[in-house]
Input
Amino acid sequence: MPVPDPLVLGTRSSELALRQANVVRSKLEAAGHRAELETITTRGDESTDTPISEIGDEAVFTKELDRALLEGEVDLAVHSLKDIPSTVPGGITLAAIGERPHPLDAFVAHPSFEGHLDDLPEGATVATSSLRRTAQLLTWRSDLNIVPVRGNVDTRLEKLTESDWDGMVLAVAGLMRLGLSVHIRDRIDPSIMIPAVGQGALGIACREEGESLRAFLHDVLHDPPAGYAAVAERAFLRRVGGGCQVPLGAWARLEEETLVLDACIAALDGTEHYRDRRRCDPEDGEEVGRQLAVDLLEAGGEAILEEVLGDQRREPTGSPFRP
Output
């Protein structure tokens, strides 16, 4: 089956999602194929007042796009990789992982606060709805007051300005893609906060049956270093289970010819924190990511998951979602 022309590209309708989708569209058009955007509203876009961890659905930002793919309404879908569950419905595959220049988290200060992350006063208030960020912030500083915040990036920045918070944590990649890097007071060192699985990368999905399209998307859009990192991080996530409901982080990157993977599982109140590092050949990232998850679960992470998830804890099913 030939590659469709034009290609119909599915995306969420937020400004950040559209920026990301247009980056992909530009690359496809440069490779000789027209592309049209089809915006799709997801449950995560509609439930803006509920923390993602409380919705209880790993696919909160992807399920509707998956449906559109499977029903042939779109030819490919562009996601923030960190939104993609560790497994997806049968019939869908991840064709490519886009370049990942900005994987870290950012500290964004209130306009009235002139200091940096290290200058936060005792009892300072920091906004984030991420369990991962909450747990790691409290591991670093148990005196901090963490408050929830939802909405797109512009909405969150507006809420920060109008609040009495000292700052908030956002992804560096989102701020950079929106041209809002001026708000980045600090790029948070990974020794304090390990990024989310896939943070900063784009995942491009299509139907498994479209072999020609899958090959084309891989050739035009796939970044091998980001791909190796994604496989290792997502293997860690898949073995731990729980997705956004679990306070975990994983960050892999190539250092010369070696894949380096840092990962953690932390208690929500910061009182327990298990983290470690592995180095391996890039081709061995999946097995090493899985084994690191086993090691951290055995060290104490399993008890954290039981406390956070309780009866909702379940083993992952389906096929791994990887290029």
